[in-house]
Structure formats: structure tokens, C-alpha cells
Amino acid sequence: MTIYALSSGSGVSGIAVIRISGENTSNLLKLLTKGGIPKPRVATLKKINNIKTSELIDQGIILWFPGPQSYTGEDMAEIHVHGGKAVVQSILDNLSTLKDCRLAEPGEFTKLAFQNGKIDLLKAESISDLISAETEIQRLQALRVMQGSFSKTFNVLREKLLKILSFVEAKIDFPDEDLPDRELNEIKKVSASVLLKIEKILSDQKVGEIIREGFKIAIVGPTNAGKSSLLNYLSKREAAIVSETAGTTRDVIEVHLNLDGYPVIISDTAGIRDSKDDIEKKGIKLALKKVENADLKLVVLDAKKPNLSDFFKDLLKKDGILVINKSDLIDNNLDTSFKNISHVLISLKENRNLDVLISNIKKHLKNKFTDQDDVLITRERHRQHLIQCAKHLRDFEKKHEVQDFDKAAEDLRLAIKHLGMIVGKVDVEEILGSIFNDFCIGK
Hints:
Blueprint: E1 2-6, E2 13-21, H1 25-33, E3 44-49, E4 56-65, E5 76-83, H2 85-96, E6 101-103, H3 108-115, H4 121-132, H5 136-146, H6 149-173, H7 181-202, H8 207-213, E7 215-220, H9 227-235, E8 253-259, E9 262-268, H10 278-292, E10 296-302, H11 310-316, E11 320-325, E12 344-345, H12 354-368, H13 380-397, H14 405-423, H15 429-436
Parallel strand pairs: 1-6, 7-9, 7-10, 10-11, 11-12
Antiparallel strand pairs: 1-2, 2-5, 3-4, 4-5, 8-9
Helix pairs in contact: 4-5, 6-7, 6-14, 7-13, 13-14
């Protein structure tokens, strides 16, 4: 089967790129250009014609990549034409009429690259992350994974476990032969070192996932404290309705921002108060859930009545900033009980101290996104496999008796399997769909 798709962005553009991959790629090029195949990896200007009528569709650049030296590992081509919708659609319509030729599924080109051994699963996922990257730090993280250092780390750990598994299986196959103490000690030493490395990776405070998905900031507080106004200020647009009526915000409003290169998701939540309104109560419930999962909480209070309840105090104990708004109404004469509590006194109405607040937010971001040369977990899938790998290694270390060698070998096999699932060294067909469905069509 030969697949095709528009690989460049949809809509009108100067250039559009149509990608084709499969065993019939060369024949398709001959039919479209009414001529021979271009030289491999040489941009060649060609007339592109209607297959049935020979009518000229456009004139563009053809790039021919014979397999296996191509992105997918198969015969592959790219057609670069003018980006008008009619031009692109005409070429796609022509390809659709041919036998054993169909539109590619999301991520299918990259899936083929993985299945044909051109890339591993980590690199495949990083390609998707690079396409989706909206900030500099996301781009850099995706490139780090693409360059293979993460894959190398997991493969090295896997090879170490495979080596000690061979010693354990040798003991099972030859029970009368005693393993030298030196080899037994080496087995324990290697297993412990792999477990220590995995535990170190798991203690990353989910920095890699936060970079990929965005640093979550929740704005929380009582009604009419100025939460929605703060969201609008930070997002530089009217993202939320602002009203003097208490309880205006009933749902969670999210805004994605690029703050000094850091990906940030700011959520405005319903005001926290006792309410008899069913809809508002649901909004408050959503607010509490959003706050619980936030990486940073901005607790916003009204300067005229700054009631810092025990609930808000608990939020400030870890990853929280106390923001007291409406300082213009009190002439900066804040209740003396707040003098010993770290806070930022602002006025959204008169733009007072907002630069100080933003500076504090940036400090939290920079502290969270400290430069790390070690491996970062970028997806929950990786984390779960590492957790399971560590569990089986701990089970392995508990087995010391000769009769436990069969069970010890199984612990090692399962640990190796979970490491292999991260990079795709074992049968991973059941997870391929969930990974590549997140890709755009044409990639």
C-alpha cells in the first residue's frame, strides 16, 4: 500500500508539500510528471499533470528518496507546489484514484519510520513534541530527546539487566554449578546501580512533563477579589468576563501563555464561598480540583476585606503567592496582621506593583525549570514503565535463596520489558495507536 498526504500546513500558503511513501511511489511520480524519476535527493523542477487528461496542474519541485535511505525507510517522494487550495486538492484527488494508494493516517509516516527501524519510540514522540512546541524551552527539550541521549540511557540500563539475566538463567540451566561469589556480587551491584539510576530519574518533580504540557497556574480566591481581571491582565486580552456581581465566574477559564519562553497555562476559577446555587457549586468544585493540580497558586484577596482563611493558608504553604488586590481603595494601609505574611499588594485598576507580581511568578518558573543535564521524563507512559521497572528490581533484590532463582529471573525479565517499552525494543503494537494518533496527518 502506498500512502500520501499534505505535510505542510493547511490553508493558503506560498508552498505546499505533499508527501508520498510506499512501493508504488516511483510509478506515481512517472504518472504525475509524464516522465522519468528524478535523481535521488536532488531537487528537480517538473510539470505536474492530471493523470487521466494530461492537463497541467502546476509546476513544482520533486524530491525522490529511494528506500531504505528515506525518512520512512520505504521509497518516498515529496512534491513541492504552490500552496493554493485548488492546486493541492487536484493533486490529492489524482492520487486518490490510483489502485493501492490511500490518504495517510495521522502520524503514519513516522509510524513507518519506527516500524522500519529508522527511529525508536522516544524519537518518534519527540518529533510530535517538536511540531507542537510553542516556546523555546519546549523546542530545546524535544531536540534533546531527538538527539538520542535519553534513548541511549535507557538502552544502556537495559543492556546491563540483560547481562545479569544471562548469569541468572545460566544458574537455572546448570543448577549443579555454583556461580562464583565475584559474579554474584557483581549481579547485585549492577542491579542496585540500575535501580538507583531509575529512582533518580523518577525524582524529577515531573519537570519534563511540565515543560511539554505547560506550567499550570491557578488563580484562586473569594468572589469579587479581582481574579478575572488578573487573568485578563496576564493574558493581555479580555479572556474572562469582569463584573461587580459576585459569582460571575462559574467555570474554569484557561489561557495558554508564553512567559519569557516558558509554557504557562493560567486558570481563572470560580470564587470560593458557600453557595446554594447548584451551578456555582459545580464551578467551585471544578475550581478546587484545578487548584489541587496546579504547579503554582495565586491566592487573590480583596484589600478592603482580606480574609485569609485556613484553606487559603494551606495553599500558600507550598507553591503559592498571596496577592492582595485593590490597594487603591485603602491607600496602601493594609491590615497590620498581614505585615508578617509574604504577599504582593497590587491594584489592577491603577496598575500598581503588577511588575513585582510578574517578577515573583517568573522566579517560581525559573526555580522549577532549572537546567538539568540528566534524563527527563516527558510523558506519563515513560513514568509508569519506570515505576514498574523499579518495582520488579526491588522484588529481584529480595530474592537470595537458590530456590528463588526462577522467580528472580522473571523479575529481571519484567524489568527489562518495561525499559524496552519506553524505546520500543519489545512488542509495543498495543500502544502505537495512542502515540501516533496525536500526530498531524502528513507526519
